[in-house]
Amino acid sequence: MEILPFENLAPTLHAEAARILRDALAHMPSAYGKPGEAEAEVADVLGNPERQALAAVEDGRLLGWIGWIDEMYSHSWELHPLAVDEPHRRKGVARRLVAALEARARDAGILTLWLGTDDDYGGTNLHGKHLFPNVLDHAARIEQKDPRHPIAFYRSAGFEVAGLLPDANGPGKPDILMVKRVGG
Ligand SMILES: CC(C)(COP(=O)(O)OP(=O)(O)OC[C@H]1O[C@@H](n2cnc3c(N)ncnc32)[C@H](O)[C@@H]1OP(=O)(O)O)[C@@H](O)C(=O)NCCC(=O)NCCS
Going by CA atoms, what residue is nearest to atom 16 of ligand 1? Predict the structure, then answer.
């Protein structure tokens, strides 16, 4: 498996990247459900100077990809998006992609990676709950309920829960904020 800059991929693999993203998040009501949405995400990664991505490729096939956004902070990048094609999961592909992103981040002087991982479908024990008041108490007790929710992956990759955005996707559908120190 090779980790390659996203922009170096052939157009057929960019189309495949959109397909992988759509399929990987098909269980989430808020993600890439509309026609052309995943393709627009790929086009934005390629055309927006604040966005970059890396791809995991094996024998000319795209296994998965990871992107990041350098927009909001001087020393922190947002990890977005991350998707591995279903037949290639649990083989360390995402772990390699995150490690490659971390190396890039360190080289760029970035200190912290952050991400938001939504729960709009019951992926964790927070789905459907009222999270105010004492939001951080709920954050401290979060658990994966559905194996499709990536919180277990991110924890295994060294990320920790730093907070919650209650009702970000509608009542009882929070975004979960996670962070990892990568430099300094
Ligand atoms: C989350 C995702 C990227 C993980 O990709 P992956 O290549 O299968 O992950 P890895 O093989 O590198 O996993 C590394 C470790 O993370 C943990 N892990 C990964 N997937 C997990 C799951 N579904 N449940 C529990 N732990 C998991 C395990 O500890 C695993 O090590 P192990 O296989 O030796 O037990 C993949 O499942 C995916 O594309 N999901 C759908 C899209 C998505 O949710 N993206 C994130 C949006 S915020």
Answer: 153
Domain that holds residue 126: 111-184
pTM here is: 0.97
Report the alpha-carbon distance of residue 103 to residue 80 in Å, rounded. Answer: 16
Instruction: Please indicate, yes or no, if residue 38 is contained in any of the structural domains.
Output: yes
Q: Are residues 32 and 118 in the same domain?
A: no
pLDDT tens-place string over residues 52-90: 999 999 999 999 999 999 999 999 999 999 999 999 999
CATH code, domain carrying 15: 3.40.630.30
Residue minimizing CA distance to atom 28 of ligand 1: 153
Q: Is 152 in the pocket of ligand 1 (CB under 6 A)?
A: yes
Tell me how far apart the alpha carbons of residues 126 and 104 are, in angstroms, rounded to a whole number.
33
How far, in Å, from the CA of 49 to the mean position of ligand 1? 28
89 CA to middle of ligand 1, Å?
A: 7
Residues 75 and 116 in one domain: no
DSSP string, 55-111: EEEETTEEEEEEEEE--S-SSEEEEEEEEE-GGGTTSSHHHHHHHHHHHHHHHTT--
The tens digit of pLDDT for each residue in 134-184 reads 999 999 999 999 999 999 999 999 999 999 999 999 999 999 999 999 987
Report yes or no on 56 lying in a domain.
yes
Q: Which atom of ligand 1 is nearest to the CA of 90?
A: 11
Task: Please indicate, yes or no, whether residues 140 and 76 belong to a single structural domain of this protein.
Answer: no
